[in-house]
Request: fold
Amino acid sequence: MGAGLTQFNQEMTDWYETIEKSDDEKFDEYISEQSKETWLESISSITLHNAYHIGQIVTIRKIQGSWSKEQGLS
Reply:
């Protein structure tokens, strides 16, 4: 696994663990007094954003023929 992929995997693991350890009540709070967005709404947006771009990367690599079946989805 390349250094970039290793770092990405660690970041995603840290993201998951941080959310998992968070108090449920925090998710309903607004991010700040100026924000109209709750932590849950923001986390949901970021998660969907990441999933969208990961899908783009996988699709492009499959089209290029540079997707390794051994490292991921076929």
Q: What stands out?
A: The chain has a mean pLDDT of 89. DSSP finds two helices and no strands in the chain. The longest helix spans residues 39-64.
